[in-house]
């Protein structure tokens, strides 16, 4: 195989003059009328080779089934176009598509992922750089270049390729989606679609399809004009959101969400990134899309659903900016039918609030899940939501009759009379259920045999704090502190952190808050923090392992907690503790900071409680020693289950294979409860398990009296608590903990139904 050892450092493409000349040529090609999209792509790949001093430029287009087709090339054998296919994830181009980020490979032949496609004649090339072509979060293809000589592609080079990929995205979208639409729409005979159940409920109404603003021109000739347009759009959007916040009918909950938006809007890091993109030749619109796309992409790679779902907030903000930049108006509320079913690819909360929400009876999303902010807003209006129906915003037309069954996860488009009758009956039943849940909100969370259960929420953004109805919960059982660290450009300083934590405490008034120290690493990567590129990051350098090794970060955070809680009670817990010694090291650091603050004469918290999360199985075998040293324990069932069952919680193939309602898992939970109860150490549950009704029946049956959950689950869980008998459930469970079945779920379900437990 060919090996040329000479190594060039820079490519002409990183030269500013070449850069500008190339962008000008591309701009001209895109604007040209009378030539097809295919022709334009061919001209652009040729331009890149001719102007940029690279030997190859190829454009791959995404096809249904996660396949990339070599669509146009200059430099490879042109007979390979439309004949060479790679799967997403296959080869270096496939890897760029899979990871959805620009990448450069200096020595492709020695790269483990390289796949040689002889028909392309790529034998002669040594280095490759490529960028994904993405629009609206959808992967459309990959643009890549290759060189005969070994080259270290500088970051500026990849930036330029990304700008070109954006410019190409409009053209590639027409090609990439054309075939998908034919398949999805033409082949779609059924009027009933399966969907994910996001907010339960039943509704009938007329479709209104929410459309996102189209990108328009991508490359600009005047940087200063585009910067001014962007700055003016930012100001307008800020005013618009301020106006929404001050609307008299806006609830605290919705205000909180919009205020988080304002926080993002004012973030200088975000604004500067957009201005920098304009400096690279993009229009203001393209800069907005690019930067929001990059942030969304970073979040998309995380398995933490909470953070992942903030993607839609960024998309909402980006869409607002785009609308102003493109001079488009939002829909006039008068145009919405009275019983509207809003259909959208995805939707941000502010976009939803732009509509006359009283007219919206249900929402159908292509992308959506439980903790998206739009879902939180929808929940506060009791609007049923279903999601996960591919291309539904293309399939449904305005004014179609839609039947949304979010209880069972179905959407009916223009349903038959029989289905319509069925819907009307279900709607009546639903009204009765809502009346029953509403009556519970002021009642205590006590089981039928008098056991009090403390219901708490898991939170991380200020909007979460006011999301839950105050009368439904007792405090914050888990405050995830990662988010402010993830949305910053650098580690937030002690002062910034103190302000964030103080605000949480103040907003909670007298309710207790348990702060968890930084749980970064694994999927929660900070872009500015050292990344070890580990093979198994969930089991790698993460969480307390990082903060014990980089003690200054831990010390800074602990100091901020102490200062924020002056004269109040402070509760702190450490994540991913694997043994008693780790807990001791963390606690000693806290003691040190407390002593330091005292010495400085700063006000101290009234009382300090220190606990640990139980997420690493090894700690189960030191539990009896641990309870002598901690004030409380909180079980993170998400991580504990992944490590106990050896199932990656981010891997959809495997993560439903084992059940937290299996006898093994429940037996472990019972053991922890017994050890803690004997030592008089409070033990709660803060993993997602505590957000699910049937799981709560089991947890309460096992003896747990404090649950911390997704705020959305509070109403249902309270209904569960108030309808179950703790003692009876306990003796039922005890009889089955040594069963050898895979899961006790069906058994527990029958038990709950037989005993009228509200699941
Ligand atoms: C858990 O692991 O259960 C937990 C609550 O922590 P996180 O989901 O933030 O990892
Ligand atoms: Mg965890």
Outline the structure in words.
With 759 residues, this protein is α/β, with parallel strands linked by helices. The strands form 4 sheets. The protein has an 8-stranded mixed sheet with strand order 9-16-15-11-12-13-14-10. Helix 11 links the parallel strand 12 and strand 13. 45% of the residues are buried. The structure holds phosphoenolpyruvate and magnesium ion (MG).
Give the helices and strands, then pairings.
Blueprint: E1 7-8, H1 16-31, H2 37-52, E2 56-63, E3 67-74, E4 85-87, H3 91-99, E5 103-105, E6 127-135, E7 138-147, E8 150-151, H4 155-186, E9 192-194, E10 196-199, E11 202-210, H5 223-245, H6 252-265, H7 268-279, H8 284-300, H9 305-308, H10 311-326, E12 340-344, H11 349-354, E13 360-365, H12 373-380, E14 385-387, H13 392-395, E15 401-405, E16 410-413, H14 417-440, E17 454-459, H15 462-467, E18 475-480, H16 482-486, H17 494-507, E19 513-516, H18 543-549, H19 551-564, E20 569-574, H20 580-599, E21 607-614, H21 623-626, E22 632-635, H22 637-644, H23 663-679, E23 683-685, H24 693-702, E24 706-709, H25 714-723, H26 726-736, H27 745-754
Parallel strand pairs: 1-8, 11-12, 12-13, 13-14, 17-18, 17-24, 18-19, 19-20, 20-21, 21-22, 22-23
Antiparallel strand pairs: 2-3, 2-7, 3-4, 5-6, 6-7, 9-16, 10-14, 11-15, 15-16
Bound molecules: phosphoenolpyruvate and magnesium ion (MG).
Magnesium ion binds at residues 575, 615, 636, 638-639.
């Amino acid at each position: 195989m060919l090996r040329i050892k000479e190594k060039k450092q820079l490519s002409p493409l990183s030269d500013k003059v070449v850069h500008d000349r190339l962008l000008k040529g591309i701009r001209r090609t895109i604007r040209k009328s009378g030539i097809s999209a295919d022709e334009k792509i061919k001209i652009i790949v040729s331009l890149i080779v001719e102007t940029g001093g690279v030997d190859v430029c190829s454009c791959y287009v995404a096809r249904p089934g996660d396949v990339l087709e070599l669509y146009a090339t200059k430099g490879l054998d042109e007979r390979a176009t439309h004949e060479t296919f790679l799967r997403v994830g296959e080869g270096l181009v496939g890897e760029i598509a899979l990871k959805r980020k620009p990448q450069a490979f200096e020595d492709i032949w020695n790269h483990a992922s390289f796949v040689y496609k002889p028909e392309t004649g790529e034998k002669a090339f040594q280095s490759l750089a490529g960028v994904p072509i993405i629009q609206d979060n959808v992967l459309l293809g990959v643009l890549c270049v290759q060189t005969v000589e070994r080259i270290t592609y500088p970051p500026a080079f990849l930036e330029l390729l990304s700008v070109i990929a954006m410019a190409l995205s409009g053209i590639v979208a027409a090609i990439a989606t054309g075939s998908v639409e034919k398949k999805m729409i033409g082949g779609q005979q059924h009027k009933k679609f399966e969907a994910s159940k996001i907010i339960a409920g039943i509704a009938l109404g007329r479709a209104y399809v929410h459309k996102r603003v189209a990108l328009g021109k991508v490359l600009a000739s005047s940087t200063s004009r585009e910067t001014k347009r962007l700055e003016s759009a930012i100001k307008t959007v800020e005013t618009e959101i301020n106006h929404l916040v001050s609307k008299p009918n806006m609830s605290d909950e919705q205000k909180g969400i919009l205020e988080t938006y304002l926080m993002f809007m004012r973030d200088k890091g975000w604004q500067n990134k957009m201005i920098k993109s304009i400096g690279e030749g993009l229009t203001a619109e393209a800069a907005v899309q690019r930067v929001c796309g990059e942030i969304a992409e970073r979040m998309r790679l995380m398995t933490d659903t909470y953070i992942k779902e903030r993607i839609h907030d960024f998309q909402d903000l980006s869409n607002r900016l785009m609308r102003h930049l493109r001079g488009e108006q939002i829909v006039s509320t008068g145009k919405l039918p009275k019983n509207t079913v809003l259909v959208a690819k995805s939707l941000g909360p502010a976009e939803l609030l732009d509509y006359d929400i009283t007219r919206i009876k249900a929402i159908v999303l292509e992308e959506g899940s439980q903790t998206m902010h739009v879902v939180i807003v929808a929940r506060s209006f009791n609007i049923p939501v279903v999601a996960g129906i591919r291309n539904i915003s293309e399939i449904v037309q305005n004014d179609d009759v839609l039947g949304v069954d979010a209880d069972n996860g179905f959407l009916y488009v223009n349903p038959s009379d029989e289905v319509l009758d069925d819907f009307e009956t279900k709607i009546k039943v639903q009204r009765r259920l809502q009346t029953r849940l509403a009556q519970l909100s002021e009642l205590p969370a006590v089981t039928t045999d008098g056991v009090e259960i403390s219901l708490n929420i898991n939170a991380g953004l200020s909007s979460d704090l006011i999301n839950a109805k105050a009368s439904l919960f007792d405090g914050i059982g888990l405050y995830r502190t990662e988010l402010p660290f993830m949305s910053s450009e650098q580690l937030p300083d002690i002062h910034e952190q103190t302000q964030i934590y103080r605000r949480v405490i103040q907003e909670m008034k007298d309710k207790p808050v348990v702060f968890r120290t930084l749980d970064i690493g694994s999927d929660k990567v900070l872009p500015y923090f050292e990344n070890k590129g580990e093979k198994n990051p969930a089991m790698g350098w993460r969480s307390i392992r990082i903060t014990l090794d980089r003690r200054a970060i831990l010390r800074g955070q602990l100091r901020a907690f102490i200062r924020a809680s002056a004269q109040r009670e402070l509760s702190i817990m450490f994540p991913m503790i694997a043994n008693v010694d780790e807990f001791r090291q963390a606690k000693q650091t806290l003691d040190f900071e407390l002593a330091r603050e005292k010495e400085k004469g700063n006000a101290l918290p009234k009382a300090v409680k220190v606990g640990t999360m139980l997420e690493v199985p090894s700690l189960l075998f030191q539990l009896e020693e641990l309870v002598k040293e901690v004030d409380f324990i909180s079980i993170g069932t998400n991580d504990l289950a992944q490590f106990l069952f050896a199932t990656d919680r981010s891997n959809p193939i495997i993560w439903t294979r084992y059940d937290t309602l299996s006898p093994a898992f429940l037996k472990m939970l019972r053991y922890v409860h017994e050890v803690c109860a004997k030592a008089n150490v409070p033990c709660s549950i803060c993993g997602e398990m505590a957000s699910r009704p049937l799981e709560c029946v089991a947890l309460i049956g096992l003896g747990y009296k404090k649950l911390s959950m997704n705020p959305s689950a509070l109403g249902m869980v309270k209904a569960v608590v108030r309808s179950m008998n703790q003692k009876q459930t306990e003796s039922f469970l005890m009889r089955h903990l040594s069963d050898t079945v895979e899961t006790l779920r069906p058994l527990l379900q029958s038990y709950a139904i037989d005993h009228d437990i509200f699941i």
